[in-house]
Write a structure and sequence with these properties.
alpha/beta
Length: 230
């Protein structure tokens, strides 16, 4: 059977000893130590625009957290172009949109993956009002309940500059990681994405620069840069 075009390579699972997997573990460690006084439990991952690798990045980061023997949940809050149900090969019949519209319970929406310790809530059916959904009181109560049930909650949001969803979600999270494609995003676009998050008081933990070419033996590497303002 051929691999689906939208199925991502979760290298931290398929090749945990690779240099890229080690980079993800370094990212996990940096996030853990990014704040001394506050617990980094609910973390949002976004990008400036589409196609910068945020969904692949958050999937691999979630796996590294699960590999550290923590109970991890990944939420696909990109209810416009959802992907995580393909990545982890689970059903998208019920998901976040279903929970927020009270069509199913939170328990029904949480699905276990093939990765021990890692569960997912997929996006669910695409709703007509995703921004209103993520800004709702129901979303706040869902996140509050998940804090009690999981050690780490990672939220995959839509790109920051495309829609307002990411800004709205960031206010409910302990920190935000911004993913940028090294060869694709111009400096002014990256700064605009950061400014949009700053305006709502989001705590930017750092930036992951994707597709930085290293030596041939290492392929593509991921870097983590701590935010100088924090």
């Amino acid at each position: 059977m051929s691999r689906p075009a939208n199925k991502r390579n979760l290298i931290t699972h398929t090749n945990p000893r690779s240099p890229i997997s080690e980079a993800y573990r370094s990212l996990r460690t940096n996030v853990d130590f990014s704040s001394i006084d506050e617990k980094m439990q609910v973390i949002m991952v976004t990008s400036a625009g589409p196609g910068e690798g945020k969904s692949t990045m958050i999937g691999n980061l979630a796996i590294t957290y699960a590999q550290s023997e923590r109970k991890v949940l990944l939420i696909d809050a990109d209810m416009r172009k959802p992907t995580e149900h393909h990545t982890f090969e689970v059903s998208n019949r019920w998901g976040l949109s279903s929970v927020l519209s009270q069509q199913c319970s939170l328990e029904e929406a949480i699905q276990e993956t093939k990765i021990p310790g890692l569960s997912v809530i997929t996006s669910g059916p695409i709703p007509p009002n995703p921004a209103e959904m993520v800004a709702s009181k129901r979303m706040s109560s869902v996140i509050a309940e998940l804090r009690e049930r999981f050690d780490i909650v990672l939220i995959n949001s839509p790109p920051t500059l495309a829609v307002t969803d990411a800004q709205l979600l960031s206010t409910r999270c302990d920190g935000v990681i911004l993913v940028l494609d090294h060869g694709k995003v111009k400096r002014e676009i990256a700064l605009k994405a950061k400014e949009g998050l700053d305006k709502v008081g989001a705590k930017i933990l750092g930036v992951v620069i994707n597709n930085v070419k290293r030596r041939k033996s290492e392929g593509y590497y991921y870097y983590y840069y701590g935010d100088k303002n924090n």
